[in-house]
Protein 1
Amino acid sequence: MTRWLSFSRRVLYLAVALCAAAASIGRPASAAEGIPTEVLRVCADASLLPFSNERREGFENRIAQLIADDLKVPLAFTWWPQTIGFVRNTLRTRQCDLVMGTAVGEDLMQNTNPYYRSTYALIYRKDSGITAKTLADPSLQGARIGVVARTPPSAVMLRHGLINMEPYQLDTDTRAHHPAQQAVEDVAAARTDAAIVWGPIAGYFAARQQVPLAVVPLMDEPGASPFQYMISMGLRPDEPDWRHWLNDFIIRRQGDIDRILAEYHVPLLNADGTIRAEVAEPDGYRMADYRSPTPPGLRGAETVGAAEVERLAKAGAVLVDVLPTPPKPAGLAADSRWVPPPHRSLPGAHWLPNVGYGAPSDEQEAYFRTGLEALTAGDRKRPLVVFCQPDCWMSWNAAKRAVALGYQSVKWFPAGTEGWTAAGHELVTVEPEPSPVSPNSISKIAN
């Protein structure tokens, strides 16, 4: 099975989204058993979205950047197509330090702990009349279904009597052919009725079609080839320190990794194999339960990570912290004096507390509006980075409200202060920005 996983990853399919290391060739492993100290070299396919491309637009490109930033070294890529000999000609010849995506159990490399788990997905047009949630659904009978040849879904389809298949090539050179992407596009164009595609590819390309497509993650079926696979990173077997470092990185930065995967609409599974629900972006503002999972993105704004925030801050962006002021502890007497703990935030950040509610008070709304005007000197094109903490709808609401106010370069940093410290940066103590509304309005804004 592991050899089959290795084979199919070459061709853009199974869960083996191989990316790996690059640029400086022939460098010996570092003294710490392979941990890069000068440059993180990653070999990757130059044309294999959503995993990687030469413009670094894939999710594996971005996760590799997280690793490089954590190591505080530059990131370099050597491009090599996902064909036979990929590992032999890159990782094994020490032209790379890391393969970004490989199925757990891959026997060509040493594996890290898994950093995500995904599955094959069924795709169909929402207006097609198909309503299937499993391959056993009667609405699939007679449908023309696209599937990449010799992958697990093809055998399970036959089990359910789904014989009207549209086959797509398994062995392919990604410089010229993208069969799984084509399978998604054929569904959108009504050349086929449905397709079964590896989840990361399904989610990414379905979201980019002109017609609405349903993406249904599939559960494993007893007695059949599995649909679900855990994905790890691959490295050479003689580098235990590098593996330990990467395992620690995955633990520390799992939240950041999950947010990147969610932006690319990767179907994610829990450890028990159940489907992890993706949080949909609401049309309006979040009105309650502000500390809960947020959507992967925000229409009209750009979602950024710690490395981008650092670069934006150096370029003059305004950092806006919108974490609410802490509530007074319960049980204090009305006349008791309470001093809240110091607020720690990003260096250079401006704290505008309590402005991220779904329905802010007039004072809170005015504080936010006039505060942004003062911080940007009225320049609606000046970049704004809005944040609080992970799973914080306050920052999502505030970023959305900044877009509505006409700011043209709003960046949402969902990882917030915890993501900043996880990236190895320090926090500093900040005070709330003074309110230009009225001298005593901060107390009203806090309530």
Note: The chain has three domains: 2-116+229-263, 117-217, 302-328+341-446.
Protein 2
Amino acid sequence: MAADPGARGTARQAPTHPHPATAGHPTVLTGATVILPTETVTNGRVVVNGTRITATAPENAQVIDASGHYVIPGFVDLHNHGGGGASFTSGSVDNILKGIHTHRLHGTTTLVASTVTGDMDFLTQRAGLLSELAEQGDIAGIHFEGPFISPCRKGAHSEALLRDPHPADVRKLIDAARGRAKMLTLATELPGGLDSVRLLAEHGVIAAIGHTDATYEQTVEAIDAGATVATHLFNAMPPLGHRSPGPITALLEDDRITVELINDGTHLHPAALQLAFHHAGADRVAFITDAMDAAGFGDGRYWLGPLEVEVADGVARLTEDGTIAGSTLTLDRAFKRAVTVDGLSVEDAVTALSATPARLLGLADTIGSLEPGKYADLLLLDADFELKGVMRRGEWVVPPQLG
């Protein structure tokens, strides 16, 4: 199944379906292992009243026994191109909402919609549509991945549509997003790259270094100019060399950089992930999906922008040359793999999937951790780290399965 590249629509509010356990009633989850920002509490409790977490429970609160389960914050995905058969770059509004809902079913309660390389007129049109969805609260903002990337490291982007990051073009995308642009990935070594980084920083948009062929020295220069994120570290950039350390070394060693990692077992060897955590720590790592249409949907043929993709056994590759084309990852799988395969602590995995990306987006006052006053975005996991409940803004997206 392929997304319709020409589909358009008008933004509307996504429907919500409250679970009866919380429809109009405060809720208390009790008996669970609760992962808090500063500690892990066994036999803990979380109180939800309306859309928020509260410190005290009203007398009429409904109690849900979550013994034997974890309660953790909802996941925050900085980099996501679609899911459920829908593309955020080319799908209609209904399809985009379907893709958002697909990822919510897998625990992503906050999502930034990513676009792929296209011509400037098309991208500005998409930015306008996506900005409406951001204004309605369906997404947390827009991430532009391309067209300002290196043809040497283009990955699954159309080379014919790539261009240098001239600040005037970057400004067009910022303006089209109407204040909802959160991040833009660019190869900062290209002409105009450093000036564009400065422009992005001035407008409060994250400048992310990615799909780059930069040297170590050029990457340091970009960080000094204001870049703060490494787009899917290790992927689509020169490998680390002992005489030519390249961008990976510069990005890992600098405390100003948050590194994205795609933890699907395909994009990264476990040792590479361990290397990143050893040097950056959970406070500087954000697990992302880089998901395309097939996430949560299945194998088959799809479109990623103008390029055809074949998904087989859950791995997406361009049909023309076999290049890996995004992922079919969902963040519940990334979390479970982090703990059960990569050996990370539950606390570090929660930080990388919730707190770190929330802070990077400037949303740490409302999401990313379980604290009174923040939105009731939370997940229930069983002892095997399987997802058993998803709550967003106090309403069950996936009702508790605690039997």
Note: Residues 1-23 have pLDDT under 50 and may be disordered.
